[in-house]
Structures are given as C-alpha cells and as structure tokens.
Amino acid sequence: MALQLGDTAPDFSVDSTEGTISFHQWLGDSWAVLFSHPADYTPVCTTELGAFAKRKSEFDKRGVKLLGVSVDPLESHNGWAEDIETTQDAKLNYPLLADDEQTVANLYGMIHPKADPKVTVRTVFIIDPDKKIRLTLTYPPSTGRNVDEILRVIDSLQLTSKHKVATPVDWQNGDDVIIAPSLSDEEAKERFPEGWETKTPYLRVTRQPD
C-alpha cells in the first residue's frame, strides 16, 4: 500500500556518498527532502542534483536536510558526482543513497508496477521532525523538479505547523494567509489581534504571523 500523508516515514540503514545513513537517527530534529532518481547518469537528474547542491544553504537555513536516492551502487554514484560537478558547476554537498538492493525504493513505493522493476519513480518526499510524511510529488522522467516550489511548500508547511493558518494559491513567504476555519472568531481575535478581512465566513484573510 502506498504511503499517505501523515504516515511515519519508514526507517532504513543504507550506504551513501557520505557513509551509512540510518535515516531516523540521521534526521534527528530536522526536516528532510528525500528525492529519488531512476538511475545514475540520467540527464534530467544530473541537472536536479546540481541545482539542489547550489541551493543547499536555503534548505539549511530552514532546518531541512537533503537526501538523494538512486538504485545504482556507490561506485557509480562517485563517478556520477564528478559529472555533476563538471556539467552543473556544483559539487555534491549532501548524501546520495546507494540503494542498489532497492531497500528504500520498496519501502517508499518508488517502483512503478508498470515500469521496469529497476526503474524508480521520481518522487519527492518532505518529512517533518516527527518523521511524518508531509508532502509527496511524483514527476515523469522527462520533467525536472522545481526547487523554488519545494522551498515554497516547506515555508508553508513550517508556517502552518506553528500557526492556525493555511496558505492560499500561489502564496509566497510574507504574503497574507487564511485563518483556519476551525477557529471561531473569538479564538481568532486572540491569535490575530491585528484583525482580518472577512471575504466569506469561511475565508478570513490576515497578515502572515511572524
């Protein structure tokens, strides 16, 4: 059965380009982005790994760890890392799991039932410090991931985990937010003393907290 939002992210212990990763221990009190690749030396994934490496500091300041996974062995990863640095002008600066036994791929449902059993689905998992899966995004082989969108979602998840709000369409960090419908007006007055704009009884817009 596929993993659902809110499920505990499965634990594992797998070799990586930065040594053995025992996932739950490695995660600690951080958030994580776990993103899979079908194989080493694939063109779209080469650009993605380089892009994440270039922007690692943006994840760091949000308390988010990056963790890639591919079903090829460690020796292959090391060679691929050289190509990434050469073609993307970025050195791999986060671990890439060597999941050649498909331990992670099977635990996280990354093997598409109608695809070659050695080809993993290109999925992103955002996992919170409680080890809960907060988002999944699955991409086709032909389409590269959007780092800006992943950062945007992390900002939303971290904000809405702290405050009783939701973020509207196309929201960016700093934009107005929506007061959670579960809050009564009386409760909202305590949490949002600056007030809000009532567009409908269920759509109350206020300034972003913090």
In short:
The protein has 210 residues and is of the alpha+beta class.
How is this fold's topology laid out?
Blueprint: E1 13-14, E2 21-22, H1 23-27, E3 31-37, H2 43-54, H3 56-60, E4 64-70, H4 74-88, E5 96-98, H5 103-107, E6 122-127, E7 133-139, H6 147-162, E8 165-166, E9 177-179, H7 185-191, E10 197-200, E11 203-206
Parallel strand pairs: 3-4, 4-5
Antiparallel strand pairs: 1-2, 3-6, 6-7, 8-9, 9-11, 10-11
Helix pairs in contact: 2-4
Question: Which characteristics define this entry?
Answer:
Glutaredoxin; alpha+beta; 4-stranded antiparallel sheet; 210 residues; 31% helix
Q: Judging by the overall fold, what is the CATH architecture of the largest domain? A: 3-Layer(aba) Sandwich
Strand-pairing-aware structural class? alpha+beta
Main sheet properties: 5 strands, mixed
* Head-to-tail CA distance between termini: 39 Å
Arrangement of strands in the largest sheet: 5-4-3-6-7
Describe the structure.
- With 210 residues, the chain is an alpha+beta fold.
- It has 2 domains: 13-144, Glutaredoxin; 163-206, 2-Layer Sandwich (Antioxidant, Horf6, Chain A, domain 2), CATH 3.30.1020.
- Helix content is 31%, strand content 22%.
- The protein is built from 7 helices and 11 strands.
- The protein has helices at 23-27, 43-54, 56-60, 74-88, 103-107, 147-162, 185-191, and strands at 13-14, 21-22, 31-37, 64-70, 96-98, 122-127, 133-139, 165-166, 177-179, 197-200, 203-206.
- The strands form 3 sheets. The protein has a 5-stranded mixed sheet with strand order 5-4-3-6-7.
- Helix 2 packs across helix 4.
- The chain is elongated, with a radius of gyration of 19 Å.
- The mean pLDDT is 93.
